[in-house]
Amino acid sequence: MKLFVNDENTSREALIIASFTSAQIEIVNSGSGSVSSETIPSQLPAFSNEVSGLVAVSNKLVSDFAPQFTASSQQHNHWVNFRFNSLNDEESCKNNLQTLNNELSTKVFLSNNQLSVADIHIFAALALNKTIESLNKCQRIQFCNVVRWFDNLQHFSTLRNSTFISLPVVAINKNLTPQEAEKAKSETKTTATPTTTPTTTPTTTPTTTPTTTATATTTATATTTATATTTATTTATTTTTTTPAVVATTTVPPTEKPQAPQKQKQQQKTKNPEQVEAKQNKRAPKQQQAKAAPAENRSDLSHLNMIVGKILTVERHPDATNLFVESIDLGEDKPRTICSGLVKFMNPEDLQDRLVVVLANLKPRAMRGITSQGMLLCVENADETKAELVTPPEGTPLGERILFAGHEGPADAALNPKQKYWENVQPQLRTSDDLVCCFQNIPFMTSRGPCTCKSLVGGKIK
Questions:
Q1: What is the Cα–Cα distance from 434 to 393, expressed in whole angstroms?
Q2: Residue 335 φ then ψ, to 5°
Q3: How far apart are CA 28 and CA 98, in angstroms?
Q4: DSSP 91-103
Q5: Nearest to 154 by CA among 459, 384, 361, 449
Q6: Buried b (16+ CB within 10 A) or exposed e, 287-308
Q7: CA-CA distances (angstroms) from residue 245 to 242, 248, 251?
Q8: Measuring CA to CA, which residue among 104, 137, 145 is closest to residue 403?
Q9: Is 234 helix (H, G, I), strand (E, B) or coil?
Q10: What's the burial of 77, exposed, middle or buried (CB within 10 Å: 0-12/13-18/19+)?
């Protein structure tokens, strides 16, 4: 198949689409005119203009070479139109990031949580205009849903292995700590300059009444009316209405001071120094704990280390009829031994060589004489009569950590049982209507896409 296009970006977008679909086409830049069907097989329509031509070509490529990306819903058509109406250059791409970010807050893909032509077109527009690449740290946090979606697509296997086009991988930090996030925000935060209201010196009309000049002090007289200003000394025009004798009787002598504070100071001086030091030492740990508390302002989910593994061997537990003993490669120096209660749900061959998700930072636990070094995550139906594996996409690297948008942070080396992070998170783990494994509505995300199960909608993950 050969296409004639009139500009480089249209040519490159067609090549990106071809890369996702693994199609076999040739793009020829004609330098003028719109997309032409001159040398395209007769089953493709003739195109009246560049935009409609590119959409029709992408739909044809998908239907012929990647039918799994086909979508025809109203939602899908909306996002295809959005691409060509709103994402035409660098400025328009940046200006519309918030719209995309809002849409992707609870989605893996734009249309029905399935990769479609709409995703590919919008990805191509952002990639060719270097939109994500040009964002600073603060902006990547602001548009974290778009960044997560873009990173997922840029690692798509057919795109990375394509011979049509070579797109540079945009480096994205997936494990941003709360401290780093706060630092990134402060880098672009502007501090408002305090403004002061200029003071004016009031002018007075000379009168025949005598005037007195008063200097502001710590004692106030009842017969003087003064206007507050920001300077220490003020000049006020007042009418003398009292006699010096009255003023003298209303002034508080500076020598009259309460005696209680002096007694308290004397009592403090007479305290045993050893008692004072012991009391200060007792308070120190609490003060240190109070200072350290803000640094732990992160979700329970961010402490968990869920990673991708592959089951190498499966055996029945010699001393427990309901347990399998699996050897699982987690990308570490040696495989881990994990016991799982799946005997009543699966056969050993159902587990052999499967990609799985393991909660890897649980405290090792002895199970009938065999130490289990983690927990294999599965999905169960409501009455617990059926179970399926939480399955990462094919091609996900072993040892890769499962990420959740908005819950970034380094995993704990080993979970503290007293904190009950897993116990707090587990009731909120479910599968969606599209069989995507989620925490609340946030998908279990890998560099190759979301984790799924085979058939259990609304299943509990445990």
A1: 14
A2: -65, 155
A3: 35
A4: HHHHHTHHHHHHH
A5: 449
A6: eeeeeeeeeeebbbbbbbbbbb
A7: 8, 5, 10
A8: 145
A9: coil
A10: middle
> What is the pairing mode between strands 375-376 and 365-367?
unpaired
Instruction: Compute the average pLDDT of residues 30-53.
Output: 38
Amino acid in position 262 = Q
Q: Which residues contact 128 (CB under 8 A, 6 or more apart)?
A: 9, 12, 13, 16
| Integer Cα distance of 289 and 296 in angstroms | 11
Task: Identify residue 278 by its one-letter amino acid code.
Answer: A
Q: How far apart are CA 6 and CA 28, in angstroms?
A: 9
d(CA 178, CA 445): 19
Cα dihedral value 425, 431, 432, 438, nearest 10: 40
Task: Please count the other Cβ atoms lying within 10 Å of the Cβ belonging to residue 225.
Answer: 9
What is the C-alpha separation between 7 and 351, in angstroms, rounded? Answer: 51
| Amino acid code (one letter) for 395 | G
Listed residue (402, 400, 393, 390) closest to 456, CA to CA: 390
Specify whether the CB–CB gap between 392 and 451 falls below 8 A.
yes
Q: Any bridge partners for residue 379, and if so which? A: 388, 461
DSSP assignment of 10-33: HHHHHHHHHHHHT---EEEE-SSS
Please identify which residue in the block is written with the tokens 């819950």.
407
Tell me which residue of 352, 264, 251 sits closest to 310, measured CA to CA: 352
> In the chain, what are the helix, strand and coil shares in percent, each to the nearest 5?
35, 15, 50
pLDDT tens figures, 293-351: 444 578 999 999 999 999 999 999 999 999 999 999 999 999 999 999 999 999 999 99
CB-based burial of residue 428 (10 Å sphere; 0-12 exposed, 13-18 middle, 19+ buried)? middle
**Type and span of the H or E element at 280:** helix 273-292
Average per-residue pLDDT for the chain: 74
pTM above 0.85, yes or no: no
